[in-house]
Amino acid sequence: MILDKSVDVYARVSAILNKASPLADLLLRLWVAEVFWRAGMVKIQSMYSTMYMFQHVYHVPLLPPDVAAYMATGIELGFPILLALGLFTRFAAGFLFVYNIIAVISFPALWSTGFTDHKVWGLMLLTTLLHGPGILSFDAAIRLWWRRTRSGAKLA
């Protein structure tokens, strides 16, 4: 009796949580997208400071500092948009995941102060990369449209 009730309660709670999952997917994407977007906005608002940082502080492997500065700015402004919209989400999350690792490697001074933030962002990006964007995304809408189009074509 008690076991049956416990299983029933567990099933109901699980059903509620499953319905909330798409919202959690969206919030996760928006949260991490905002972090990178803000970093890109800081870079673009003071390009002189950005250039200085890439020339004298950050040590991006294999790239000249000016190229790295412009690429970082573009990445931090473009990929968060894709992530927030849920468009090419796994690609965007994977790219930002690697970019996050490069950022940590390029700025060793960060290891003692801000490394925890980068670990959290990395886990958020990895979760999105592995789990996908959820149904509240353009990827899901495109996938649904594609399936309907393909099934309609087969019936005709």
UniProtKB/TrEMBL annotation:
One of its GO terms (cellular component) is plasma membrane. Its main location: membrane. The lineage of its organism: Bacteria, Pseudomonadati, Pseudomonadota, Gammaproteobacteria, Chromatiales. Belongs to the DoxX family. It is a multi-pass membrane protein. PANTHER family: INNER MEMBRANE PROTEIN YPHA-RELATED, OXIDOREDUCTASE CATD-RELATED. This is DoxX family protein. The keyword rRNA-binding does not apply. Keywords: Cell membrane, Membrane, Transmembrane, Transmembrane helix. The chain crosses the membrane at residues 67-88, 95-114, 120-146.
